[in-house]
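Exercise 7 asks you to align residues with tokens for two separate proteins.
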Amino acid sequence: MQEQTSFPALYLHIPQLISADKLPAIDELISRSDFVDGKLTATAAAKEVKNNTQIDIRNQQTLPLIQQHIVDAMNRSPIFQAAIFPRHIFPPLVSRYRAGMSYGWHVDSPLMGAYPGMRGDIAMTIFLSEPDTYEGGELVVLSPTGEFSYKLAKGDAIVYPCTQVHCVKEVTKGMRQVAVTWIQSYIRDAGQRQTLFELYNVHKSISKDNPNSPEANQLLQTHSNLIRMWAEA
């Protein structure tokens, strides 16, 4: 799997999170799934701005298999593990947007699932349609420095903080399919996750030629000790 480390951990694009050889199985499962109004899984003000459909969460035939494909891909991704430190992963939802559908500006719920639930630290969108098969439908995340817009290749994923206001622009032609999920991290603080991800990338670069050099070992020790200091286990 190709990895891209030039993006910060806070807004991380993971190319081919789901590899090309796994996508046909997911497509086939989606084709056999029933979709319902997406408002059924929205909370509070989000209900007023959500206009899409989702695979029925009561579906026990195809949805669990799709979810397993996605979670397996997350667990196999070194860059996802290094940037996110997942403690809990909310079962992914599969959403579909046809022409005229959108999801207005909203903030994700801080707590996910039935009591006691899990804390939502990071949101993830996995794109399940090629970008040239639909028009519009960009995921837009409002950051402190402006808007970030994402319309990625099929199988690619974007992760971003749950704290940020975001929306999905109206699809004007074609059909947009995505999976969405939320993650509780062992490292609650986004700035600390960013620091650890930067150290991971520096260690990876230094250890490429000499994995047992004193500098590589020192970086690994520092990275490990910071995890011990910051992790909520």
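Second protein for Exercise 7:
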Amino acid sequence: MINKIFGLLLASFLVFGCEEQPKDAKANLPDSNGRINNVSVVIDHALWEGKIGEEIRSILAATVDGLTHQEPLFTMNQIPPSAFDGFVRSNRTFLKIGKSAQAYFEIVQDTFARPQTGVFVYAPTQEKLIELLDNNKEAIVSSFKKTELKEQQNRIAKSLKPDQVIREKLGVSLNFPTAYRYAKQEDNFFWIRKDIPKGTMEILLYEVPFHTIEKDTNIVGNIIKMRDSIGKKHIPGPREGSYLVTEDAYAPYLFDTQIDAKFAYESRGVWEVKNAFMAGPFINFAVRDEKNKRYVILEGFVFRPSTNKRDHVFELEAILRSAKIN
């Protein structure tokens, strides 16, 4: 009971200091700021350079699955506690680490700005700090990613491309920016493209019957076969006889997720062009649509050689996760 009371007092002190907050304080908070997937890490320099800093980097700078080369989940900006004030406190995501008499961990929302997700981790020793971070690493990453996906979707929603033809033909609505254009529409298949410096970002939308993915227990293998057949039919390469396929050196990562409150398989991996030297990352959602006895396939992939692609794939994920299935 004493520890619980101490924790509550510590939380109040860490968040609000000694100032009394008015009831409508959150309504008057400033807008948050920051680049997508950038996290402020508020920590003493000595702790940052030691084992605690290593633990933080192992969590927030873990490698993103399915990219063509290693990139971190988040870009981190280390800030000393004395500088965490004013405009600096308005970053959309922050992790604050420090020493205290009792161990304390909490994820908070809209503390210094809106929208904002903050994580407080305090403990009496370095060992306990590392333990708290390790025990809560999934929650930390999940909360930051949820905030960043929502922010990305809010930015996208400011200028949307009409999707009426997709709703009419495929029974799917999708929020994507006006910077994208329809590259191909054919037999309930949609190919949508955005030109970027030195490359393109692509979206594919189509449907397949249940048995395409569920004909046996090899789900990832069936998704690969599906992707390759669609690539051969709809996505030609630069040379005659070349087309989009799944890279066969490594199997894609496979996860369970939800899109529009429906079960979905999420796969991430690398695509390539058969008989041509082209490759890049893809993200694919196979959404199980019970009502219409089908899987709705939502895929995004990026072509941008010799450059970082994390944030491009993240934008595609935010778009695909906005899908609503009628």
